[in-house]
Every structure is written in structure tokens, then in C-alpha cells.
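hey can u check if this looks right to u? its 122 residues, i copy pasted from the old doc so theres a chance i mangled smth
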Amino acid sequence: MPGYTPGMTFAPLNQAMEEPLRESGCWAWTPLVHSLNPCAYIGMSFLNREGLSTFPSLPVSRPDAPPPMAGINLELITGTVLAFEPNAFVNSTRMNVGGTVTVTETGCEELNTFACRMHVTR
């Protein structure tokens, strides 16, 4: 996560997480990134949501409704713990990986590596 330091807002981080969805045409169902400490930031994507029609049983009031966002304009502070959960649907197949970092005075420190590997199940 080079370039993300205390004082930056959460919005550009969420936008960076959306970029692969934008490039691929995929869509996401769950948050792309959220905070664990403090529990104040939630970043989701509104891109390509027409894919929701593939799953009529998903609890969505309106596929065109914006996804929930919390703390999108809050500043990242030293000690904030962020969970990255990039996820994407291609038709009815979903991919979800993740990792956790803490914001330090000079950037971010990765806290795990195991969840950053893809595990394929069918």
C-alpha cells in the first residue's frame, strides 16, 4: 500500500480498490475494504451492479441503489487497522481474497499473508 499515510482520506483507498472491477467489468457484493479499528470505514463498489440480477435471492432492495458507505471522507490515522477484501463476480462465479494492514506513521504494515492467497472451491 505505498502512498497511503496518516492524514489521507479513505475515499481514494476505496477508489483504488474499485479499479480492477472497473477494468474487468466484474461486480462486487461485499465491502472491498473496511476498518477493524476503529469500526468507522466501509468501502463498497457500485460498479457493474447489473450482475446482481444473476442472484435474485440476494437481499437487495434495488440493484440500482448505491451501496452503503461509511467514513468515506474520514482521515486515516496511525493505528487504524484495515481489512482488504477484494471480491469480484464473473457471471455467477465469485472470487474473494483478503489481507490486513495497520496504518503506521510512514505508511502501512502488512499483518498477514495467508489470506492473500486464492483458494478455489466448487
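The chain has a mean pLDDT of 77.
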